[in-house]
Specification:
The chain is α/β, with parallel strands linked by helices and 408 residues long. It folds into 2 domains: 2-89, no CATH class; 99-223 and 230-406, D-Maltodextrin-Binding Protein, domain 2 (3-Layer(aba) Sandwich). It has 15 helices and 13 strands. The radius of gyration is 44 Å and the shape is globular. It starts with a strand and ends with a helix.
């Protein structure tokens, strides 16, 4: 649609409204309708020019209105675009990663406390379907043996494995499993320890969450000379430590305290004639190369506990806590069985490669040894009673649990 405007005599030119609107910066539909509504816009001559001028005046007014609308529209569009970009370009929150836990241990990585640690780590990660990721720190790289409990309480590590025999005055109830009660193997001792903890819930663990407990295998004697009776044992220099050292003193031996790592050289130099320890060391430390005689004592065990920082435990989702709760007794059994299998392999290796002799005490001889060891348990009972503990009941429970798990 167009309007005819007279530029000169008899000359009409058609000016297209759309072109005119474009020339003045673009018009909205309301402005175009106003122009189309003026029929006088097509008259000739000056009158036509007057109407054209009026039209342009109307256009100017409408253009101001238009410009306001246009500015407002641009502002609104700008706000919308900015909001859109903010929403769409804003980085989305990263998907929640796994819960990371630090697990500290004190002995070297190949030892059984660290082997069980790696197994527990894999089981937790598998059963939680990757919801938990555990970093392990063997060999005292994060916490040492004697500051393990306090380090976990302080949060230096989220989880820690400690040997309770290293602090006998702190872990009185659970350390009672280190008394000479005659555990036949690590599985029986580990399950007894776990049941004892669950029954008595000792105060010393109130600041942590106990995840599992287990023991090493029972201590037995291996020496360069055969030990078949108390006379053979009298004055014999044997490497010993912890509760084993008390046992050796009571039996008349001459116990020598030293680190396990120093024992092979001490044996070579004749400083000691043997050692008293769990029998996986025959193979692991190659003691079978020098000590050809093993006397079965079924002596003390070393109790271990795996504990978690209480705040960290409380922060875990319920399903993760459930997995760890279920693993408590299972890990105790697994570690006990692992230790016993390791001992069996070590004995078989020692027999095959070094022709060691396994000596079993007669019933009469064993009764004599037990009689000499009884005062150790009696002293523990008296000391524990003085601290307000149900000492006799604790010892009786240990013996009863042990017999039950041994199938007696």
């Amino acid at each position: 649609m167009g309007a005819k405007i007279q530029r000169g005599p008899g000359i009409l030119e058609e000016v297209h409204i759309a072109s005119l609107g474009f020339a003045i910066g673009g018009l909205d539909q309301e402005v175009l309708r106003n122009l189309r509504a003026k029929p006088e816009f097509t008259k000739k001559g000056g009158e036509g020019r007057g109407y054209l001028k009026e039209g342009f005046n109307n256009l100017s007014v409408n253009k101001e209105v238009y410009d306001m609308k246009r500015v407002l529209g641009l502002v609104v569009a700008g706000i919308f675009l900015a909001s859109f970009c903010t929403i769409t370009l804003m980085p989305l929150p990263a998907a929640a990663g796994p819960i990371k836990l630090k697990y500290a241990n004190f002995p070297p990585a190949p030892t059984f406390p660290c082997v069980q640690m790696e197994r527990w780590k894999k089981e937790v990660e598998k059963r939680t379907e990757g919801k938990v990721a555990i970093d392990t720190f063997p060999g005292g790289t994060l916490l040492g043996a004697k500051n393990m409990m306090d380090g976990v309480i302080a949060g230096t590590a989220d989880i820690g494995c400690l040997c309770m025999a290293y602090q006998p005055g702190r872990f009185i109830v659970t350390n009672a499993t280190a008394l000479p009660v005659g555990f036949p193997n690590a599985t029986v001792a580990s399950l007894t320890l776990w049941d004892l903890y669950k029954k008595y819930d000792p105060e010393e663990f109130s600041k942590v969450k106990v995840l599992t407990m287990f023991t090493c295998a029972p201590a037995n004697i291996y020496a360069k000379v055969p030990v078949r009776n108390l006379d053979d044992l009298k004055g014999l220099q044997l490497r010993s430590s912890g509760g084993v050292l008390q046992v050796m003193k009571a039996l008349g031996a001459a116990p020598v305290g030293m680190p396990q790592s120093a024992t092979p050289e001490a044996l070579q130099k004749g400083v000691v004639k043997g050692a008293v320890s769990s029998l996986e060391t025959l193979k692991d430390f190659k003691y079978a190369e020098m000590c050809k005689y093993v006397t079965m004592l079924n002596g003390p065990v070393y109790p271990f506990a795996v504990v978690m920082n209480m705040d960290k435990w409380n922060s875990l989702p319920k399903d993760v806590q459930k997995v760890m709760e279920e693993l408590g007794p299972q890990q105790a059994v697994w570690t006990g069985v692992y230790m016993d299998n390791h001992v069996d392999v070590s004995i078989a290796w020692s027999k095959k490669n070094h022709n060691i002799e396994i000596i079993e005490l007669s019933k009469e001889e064993k009764a004599k040894w037990d009689g000499l060891l009884a005062p150790i348990t009696e002293k523990w009972i008296n000391d524990a009673k003085a601290k307000g503990l149900s000492a006799e009941a604790i010892v009786e429970d240990i013996k009863a649990f042990g017999k039950m798990y041994a199938g007696e």
